[in-house]
Design goal:
Structural class: alpha+beta
Order of helices and strands: HEEEHHHHH
Number of strands: 3
Distance between the termini: 31 Å
Number of domains: 1
Shape: globular
Largest sheet: 3 strands, antiparallel
Length: about 100
């Protein structure tokens, strides 16, 4: 059985940046960096989606058209991003994370 990986410093820093003052419980850790599911007081989620919602201009046409539901996202409907495939969400995350996180 493969041992679960530990949370990286960059993951911790991003969680603190997105949810200051919250000490979220990590509920699931994926194999790739930033693939974390968490829950905390009044918030739970998946780290890539939290990043996109809070730090990426997800209603812009550039981002909206990377989703499975570009019209919804461009009109400000978060479900257009949230309900997109993991592949599309990771593509958005990977495009913006290096610039925003400082990779």
């Amino acid at each position: 059985m493969k041992a679960a990986r530990t949370i990286t410093r960059r993951e911790e820093q991003l969680l603190k940046r997105l949810y200051p003052g919250m000490n979220p419980e990590i509920t699931e850790v994926g194999e790739r960096e930033f693939d974390l599911h968490f829950k905390g007081h009044k918030v739970s989620g998946w780290l890539p989606l939290g990043f996109i919602r809070q730090l990426v201009p997800w209603t812009s046409f550039d981002v909206a058209f990377m989703t499975d539901y570009p019209e919804m996202a461009a009109e400000g409907d978060w479900s257009g991003v949230r309900d997109s495939s993991e592949e599309k969400i990771w593509a958005i995350f990977n495009k913006y994370a290096p610039e925003i996180i400082g990779e």
